[in-house]
Design goal:
The protein is about 40% helix and about 15% strand. It is α/β, with parallel strands linked by helices and about 375 residues long. It folds into two domains: about 240 residues, 3-Layer(aba) Sandwich (Aspartate Aminotransferase, domain 2); about 130 residues, Aspartate Aminotransferase, domain 1 (Alpha-Beta Complex). The strands form three sheets. Strands 1-9-8-5-4-2-3 form a seven-stranded mixed β-sheet, with helices on both faces. The chain has a three-stranded antiparallel β-sheet with strand order 7-6-11, with no helix packed on it. Helix 4 links the parallel strand 2 and strand 3. The structure holds pyridoxal-5'-phosphate.
């Protein structure tokens, strides 16, 4: 059996040809391919506007920056996320207020969100963990009651839907990631979607230095003169990345279907392993299946998660942990004055979670090898 990495991008001849065509076209940076990708993406998920950027981090930062938050603003987010979700709140001049997750989906707990609202709260940033949409109805209701904006971190959630509404069309703004491991990849990249035209206008300009014209429009008839109305950022997508994205977008339904099949196979093969807790899917969602996260039941095992990772590695299986929660990192612990005990569910998950390999190039045999190897190790170390 060849080693099975945690993830591998699914790049085919079509993506390669699209990049070569773009390289030969004479236009490398934001231009016709990016514009086409934005339109195709908006159409694919039913969003009013889609703005291509060079990462999900950039999309989150732009969205929060465009809210023009007051200096003492608080923004509520899940602690079980990648650092970028919390760091961009700080970059936008606000204070992240971390909230614990629910034990089933590991998504932000709406009751905890309601408890943490103060007169300074301005926005909520739910993270659709692993591709399972957060409890959007409850969160939108809380936001409506308190006049808050909702910026969704959908780095994992393409394509996904919640009660028939597609992620990317639910909150005020949604941020997607096209990082190398993501469900759709452009190497590095991201997309911001919104139906708020005022906010979108700010994002369009701020994603490229706060200029009134982007380079493509300047050099293709827009004229050389531009104005800078804001000290903006350098967050635009290249046409090289967009060319990959256009091909990947066409293949997204098939890629998603394969992810769903792999997740279903894992669940079937592991459902009777008493030492494991498998991912749950609430009945009213379409799961993007970016990650397949199992949790160990430590009371049943003579084995830690960390040593399990090492044993799996020896057997040629790559795994990962999503995430070391924000509240456990030294910067946030100090800056926010938070402790492990403040977030019991996420702290427990941090010790027991394991993300199994999940990528579309995996064969059914690969999935079976991972599941059976895991089952054998756990049986051997049963308490
Ligand atoms: C939940 C979450 N948010 C944001 C990001 C940042 O995405 P990007 O690498 O595209 O900036 C990631 C990246 O892995 C993520 O997992």
């Amino acid at each position: 059996m060849n080693p099975i990495p945690f993830s591998r991008p699914h790049i085919g001849e079509e993506e390669i040809a699209a990049v070569v065509e773009t390289l030969r076209s004479g236009w490398l940076t934001t231009g016709p391919k990016t514009h086409e990708f934005q339109q195709a993406f908006a159409q694919a998920i039913g969003a009013v506007q889609a703005i291509a950027v060079n990462s999900c981090t950039a999309a989150l930062h732009l969205a929060l920056d465009a809210l023009e938050l007051p200096r003492d603003a608080e923004v509520i987010t899940s602690t079980l996320t990648f650092t970028a979700t919390a760091a961009t709140i700080i970059h936008a001049g606000a204070r992240p207020v971390l909230v614990d997750v629910t034990p089933d989906t590991l998504n932000i707990d709406p009751r905890e969100v309601a408890r943490k609202i103060t007169h300074r709260t301005r926005a909520i940033v739910p993270v659709h963990f692993a591709g399972h949409p957060a409890a959007m109805d409850e969160l939108l209701e809380i936001a409506r009651q308190h006049g808050l904006r909702v910026i969704e971190d959908a780095a994992h959630a393409l394509p996904a839907s919640h009660r028939g509404r597609v992620v990317g069309t639910i909150g005020d703004v949604t941020a997607f990631s096209f990082y190398a491991t993501k469900n759709l990849t452009t190497g590095e990249g991201g997309m911001l979607t919104t139906a708020d035209s005022e906010l979108a206008d700010r994002v369009w300009s701020r994603r490229l230095h706060g200029m009134s014209w982007d380079a493509w429009r300047r050099y293709s008839g827009g004229g050389w003169r531009y104005d800078v109305s804001y000290p903006g950022f350098k967050y635009n997508m290249t046409d090289i990345a967009a060319a990959i994205g256009l091909v990947q977008l066409q293949r997204l339904p098939a890629l998603h279907q394969r992810r769903r099949e792999i997740a279903t196979l894992y669940s079937a093969l592991l459902s009777d392993v008493p030492e494991l807790r498998l991912p749950t899917t609430r009945p009213d969602v379409e799961h993007a299946w970016h990650l397949y996260v199992v949790r160990l039941r430590p009371q049943r095992l003579r084995l830690t998660r960390d040593s399990l990772i090492e044993i799996l590695k020896e057997k040629g299986i790559g795994t990962s942990v999503h995430f070391i929660p924000v509240h456990l990192h030294s910067y946030f612990r100090k800056a926010l004055g938070v402790t492990e005990e403040d977030f019991p569910v996420a702290s427990m998950a941090a010790e027991t979670m394991l993300s199994l390999p999940l990528f579309t190039l995996m064969s059914d045999d690969d999935v079976a090898y991972v599941a059976n190897t895991l089952r054998r190790i756990l049986r051997h170390r049963r308490r």
